[in-house]
Design goal:
Blueprint: H1 4-19, H2 22-44, E1 47-48, H3 50-57, H4 61-70, E2 77-79, E3 82-86, H5 87-104, H6 126-133
Antiparallel strand pairs: 1-3, 2-3
């Protein structure tokens, strides 16, 4: 079903077309055709997800994420929080080669995992408590 705004717009354009001359109509038709070609060309190029871009570049998906964060790889947009890349941008990033990859491996992007600390608690003396309950002649 068509939205009311679209019907109103079509009606206004139809009325305006009656007032335009033939040269203006021809130019308008050319502009519409050019716009349709551009839209179809843009839609024809599929966008790659992070795993797809990683497969194309033969790298780990985390490398692609780091490249995006570092600005080495352009994104075409996002679907929610997930980036989408054009194949041409991924190819340009791949063509950048080792220089682009070396820029990703810096001290700021590689984070060291903090050491796991044991939670402090009461001393563990269960064995001592159990052995004190047992008679002296019995061995545990």
């Amino acid at each position: 079903m068509t939205e009311p705004e679209s019907i109103r717009t079509v009606a206004m354009v139809t009325l305006a077309l009656d007032e335009l001359g033939p040269q203006t109509l021809d130019r308008l038709a050319e502009l519409v055709a050019e716009r349709l070609i551009e839209q179809r060309a843009a839609a024809a190029e599929p966008l790659l997800s992070t795993p797809d871009a990683a497969k194309a570049a033969r790298v780990h998906p985390e490398t692609v994420r780091r490249a995006i964060k570092a600005g080495a790889l352009r994104t075409a947009g996002y679907v929610g929080k997930r980036p989408r890349m054009r194949r041409a941008d991924v190819d340009d990033w791949i063509a950048g080669g080792a220089v682009g990859m070396d820029a990703l491996i810096t001290a700021s992007t590689v984070r060291a995992r903090p050491p796991r600390l044991r939670c402090p608690g009461p001393p563990r003396r269960m064995g001592e408590a159990l052995s004190s309950l047992m008679p002296e002649g019995r061995a545990a």
